[in-house]
Write the structure tokens for this entry.
Amino acid sequence: MSNTQQLEDLVIQVRRDILRMVHKVNSGHPGGSLGCAEFFVALFNEIMDRKDGFNMDGIGEDIFFLSNGHISPVYYSVLARAGYFEVEELNTFRLINSRLQGHPTTHEGLPGIRIASGSLGQGMSVALGAAQAKKLNNDSHLIYSLHGDGELQEGQNWEAIMYAAAKKVDNIICTVDLNGQQIDGSTDDVLPMGSIKGKFEAFGWVVIEIEEGNNIDAILKGMTEAKSKTGKGKPVCVLLKTVMGNGVDFMMHTHAWHGKAPNDEQLAIGLAQNAETLGDY
Amino acid sequence: MKTYTNTGNKDTRSGFGAGLTELGKTNENVVALCADLIGSLKMDDFKKNHPERFFQVGIAEANMIGLAAGLTIGGKIPFTGTFANFSTGRVYDQIRQSVAYSDKNVKICASHAGLTLGEDGATHQILEDIGLMKMLPGMTVINPCDYNQTKAATIAIAEHHGPVYLRFGRPSVANFTPENQKFEIGKALHLIEGTDVTIVATGHLVWEALEAAKTLNEKGISAEVINIHTIKPLDDKAILDSVTKTGCIVTAEEHNYLGGLGESVARVLAKHKPTPQEFVATNDTFGESGTPAQLMDKYGLNSAAIVKAVEKVMKRK
């Protein structure tokens, strides 16, 4: 992919995939998925240096870990549309005997997935381990990971954040989806975390902020800057400010659609706001 | 009756350290992680010889398990080291999701298991770890009996692809199995042939079972002693073949009877050949401070307790 328009077309198609996947099984997490659609599309199609096909060890290529596994719909859609598996398989999301489990898993052998996630707070440690394996293998490629902001309430993250700086793991870019929402309400209502930027910096990380986390150009610019900060002795954090439910007006700016699927009428409205671009599965 | 010679007391954790040292030389993919217990886990040599493959993670066990899972992606074989309590209960969900469910080739190496940790008391004396680990799908659970066997097991698990829980301990105990033995995961070892009762023991209780067999022999009772170093997968056939001959069984372990080796054996027997069984294990209790010998005596985990259990189970035949 090369131009912004193509990426934006893909984002719209990914939104349709997300809505249709969760609607079909009347379950899943559309809000956070929609909020990260632009990020995933930019990451997999422009930012990461990926090889064709899938190899678990990911030697000689950039690799990605999703820590907040509940936004599996956007992950599955982007993986399928990046060629890891047939887009038709999105039809099986959350169904019995599917490789597309409610939360991502390696257990069913879905190409593109390297770790199970869902129980929150574990992905950063895993990503750091993979980053250290890359160093041992003299592989100069990068590790990318995505984490929810609410997820930072899990203590294991702070063990990992401390470790990364102490061990100078500088071949990793951990992105935090700052949508300010979690299941029980806004993050400021549930458990205010203060300055996440200040905390990462105090722990010794380089922090890049992307104010417009639903804008492809802003993401590309921010992630390019983040890449330029790797290899300098410090881990890199990207704070990606997104809007939960982005692209579907009634799902935006609320935690209500964190883990709720649209009904038939709501699906129709959502799809009407995102006209088919690359073809539905 | 076959007898065994203690070639000198040694701690099983040192067997682990020696095995890890050996792996450092022979397998460049082996990496080791430790949560601030290098000396206790005897990982000093590996750290000294291979600093680039050794990761001191600090007092942060959850992060250690996640790091280990990540290190497998890229072909490394991580060995994590901390006390059994912090290797299992403290990080159960990390092991469950990032290691077991994710099919990662992580070796969770746990020292200071059970009561024989001694004076530190119940906060550190986990008696539930075998149960926790054996319940995880795909997890192999190994509890070797002495220094030589722990060393051999450490070397063997690097060749086995998949998550492994390797349990060992702190005290110096009899070292009686062969040096440089070949360790076969899942294969029970018949130590003594007998006809009246089967004693199946794991870990530190194996030597106690041999001592019990001597006492029983003097009383005219012929005990068959089986060393079950691998609790999962369990060598069902070895157990069933033995009880077919003896008609009764005693299981012995440094663990709660709930969730331990005894329950695994009971499951096999219930399914294939119901047989009278007695359990030498802790009785749904926490431990406490004391010397290892005092604790093993108080909680009924020694040769005397095994002899008593044998006498009881034989009456139930």
